[in-house]
Design goal:
single chain, 202 residues, alpha+beta, NADH Oxidase, 9 helices, 5 strands
Length: 202
């Protein structure tokens, strides 16, 4: 698939079939993810991959309510055969920038204009989504509800120095799956409103 086709076709899929996903596609997605840019080449990311029915079920049991009576959104999402939890490590970035070649003498978080550890993990996540699209699969990026994060951490042993930045679901689209959610009710904002050349105006 041409790159522009990948960009155009990528969208959030919320209803999957139960058809298995080729493990080679997931391996490629992860290999692409770690090619994302990272500040200071810190590479402070990690990826929890859940690709067995038992592990996927364990994830939703920790992250959602009432799996036996799910609403339509959860019922569709739970069918995705692969769940990836990208995590970022602030500690790795703070330690990296205290090294001699970076010149900072401490690990003061206030030096950072924005949390690059989360940004870099998000860029890696986008590469996973794009790889899924390129392979003809559906995918989505969602968040873990804050009140559910402790349960997800406990269930899968996510260490304290790594923070989930979201969840990527991957699978084949359900036969009847159609675009849903906000893109159906909200128009894409025109480029002219979003791009400011030379000076911000208006």
């Amino acid at each position: 698939m041409e790159f522009q086709d990948v960009v155009r076709r990528r969208r959030m899929v919320r209803d999957y079939s139960e058809e298995p996903v080729d493990p080679a596609v997931i391996d490629t997605a992860l290999a692409n993810a770690v090619r994302a840019p990272s500040a200071g080449f810190s590479q402070g990311w990690a990826f929890l991959v859940l690709d067995t029915p038992d592990d996927v079920r364990r994830f939703w049991a920790a992250a959602a309510d009432d799996l036996d009576h799910p609403d339509s959104w959860l019922a569709g999402m739970m069918k995705a055969p692969v769940v990836i939890v990208p995590c970022s490590s602030k500690a790795i970035y703070l330690e990296r920038y205290a090294q001699e070649d970076k010149g900072w003498e401490d690990q003061d978080e206030a030096r950072w204009p924005v949390p690059f550890w989360h940004m870099d993990a998000a860029m890696a996540s986008l590469l996973i989504l794009q790889t899924a699209t390129d392979a003809g699969l559906g995918s989505a990026f969602i968040g873990i509800p804050p009140d559910k994060e402790p349960a997800v951490r406990r269930e899968f042993g996510i260490p304290d120095d790594h923070d989930p930045v979201g969840v990527v679901t991957i699978g084949h689209r359900a036969e009847a799956e159609r675009p849903s959610g906000s893109p159906r009710t909200r128009a894409r904002r025109p480029l002219a409103e979003l791009v400011h050349r030379g000076r911000w105006s208006g």
